[in-house]
């Protein structure tokens, strides 16, 4: 009777220890020590996954990442690209060339995003957004 309780206890302790560790501190140890900045949404989502399983470890993960500063983007590094650089990927007809866009994102962000994935959902821009790029909306 004692063995199942030890087994269950061991599994519970191992699970809690894996959930308590903060994702930002594990994936980006070089970000520690920051005071503020823009929150990295990927790390915030990974920390929030801990909330789905156990409330306390999820809160601890958020607390550790915010306290160490590992949840913030590095200073000077963001996941945004200037609109002027993205203009090269937009054709004269207002359509986006995915291959050019993928090359721009690769060079600017250093990440290879699969823009040719059939599950990718694309939204049409508004006329104001097209006017900002100096393009005429196509009918």
From TrEMBL:
The keyword Transmembrane helix applies. It comes from the Bacteria. The keyword Transmembrane helix applies. The chain crosses the membrane at residues 42-64. Keywords: Membrane, Transmembrane, Transmembrane helix. This is Polyribonucleotide nucleotidyltransferase. It comes from Pseudomonas fungipugnans.
């Amino acid at each position: 009777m004692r063995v199942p309780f030890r087994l269950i206890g061991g599994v519970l302790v191992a699970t809690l220890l894996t959930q308590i560790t903060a994702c930002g501190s594990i994936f980006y140890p070089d970000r520690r020590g920051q005071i503020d900045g823009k929150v990295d949404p990927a790390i915030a989502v990974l920390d929030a996954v801990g909330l789905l399983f156990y409330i306390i470890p999820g809160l601890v993960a958020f607390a550790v990442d915010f306290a160490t500063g590992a949840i913030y983007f590095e200073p000077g590094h963001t996941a945004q690209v200037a609109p002027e650089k993205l203009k090269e990927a937009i054709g004269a007809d207002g359509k986006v060339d995915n291959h050019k866009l993928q090359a721009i994102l690769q060079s600017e962000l250093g990440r290879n995003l699969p823009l040719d994935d059939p599950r990718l959902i694309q939204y049409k821009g508004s006329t104001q957004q097209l006017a900002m790029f100096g393009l005429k909306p196509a009918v």
